[in-house]
Write a structure and sequence with these properties.
Distance between the termini: 49 Å
Largest sheet: none
Structural class: mainly alpha
Number of strands: 0
Length: 51
């Protein structure tokens, strides 16, 4: 319940108007893709698992 108060919502969730307002203020809830490991790093990691 403390978390719900902190994010200013309740157990029923956000109403459509509040959802639209937060979407406009904060943007979509999308995670960006992280940087992939280089091929050389992948080789070193696989070798270190063997040893």
């Amino acid at each position: 319940m403390i978390f719900l108060k902190k994010v200013e919502t309740n157990e029923a969730g956000l109403g459509n108007s509040e959802r639209g307002k937060r979407l406009a203020e904060n943007g979509s809830n999308v995670l960006t893709k992280g940087k992939e490991d280089s091929e050389l790093k992948k080789v070193f990691l696989s070798i270190s698992m063997i040893c």
